[in-house]
Amino acid sequence: MSHPRGELSLRTLAMPADTNPNGDIFGGWLLSQMDIAGGLTGKERCRAPVATVAIESMCFHHPVAVGEVICCYAEIVKVGRTSMRIRIEVWSQGIQYGTERKKVTEGIFTYVAIDKNGSPIPVDREES
Q1: Which domain holds residue 72?
Q2: Is the pTM of this model over 0.85?
Q3: Do 75 and 45 form a contact (C-beta atoms < 8 A)?
Q4: Which residue of 7, 10, 65, 115 is most buried, as measured by CB atoms within 10 A?
């Protein structure tokens, strides 16, 4: 079995309100959980608010069912002057206790560090 890359950033439960017409968890809900996880990781890294500016190489591997626990793992893969590229993987644990976890989706998100006015600021800056 492979293992998640990065650090655990977010863990939550897939609920019935998060389903699509097929009864699986809606991909947009998974995407929003990934964005939250990446935002938390970015904010922690630069000690400032961040804004999502791009999502690339998104891939859905498996559907997620209601009642599964999803875990978002985030890994910073590149830091620029004001931006960070963060790889995010979502792994799910099946409804039955002891079910093997599996990677259900992954993508790379780009975040920009921002000030209180929403303007970009350096990720690595002197504290004042």
Answers
A1: 7-113
A2: yes
A3: no
A4: 10
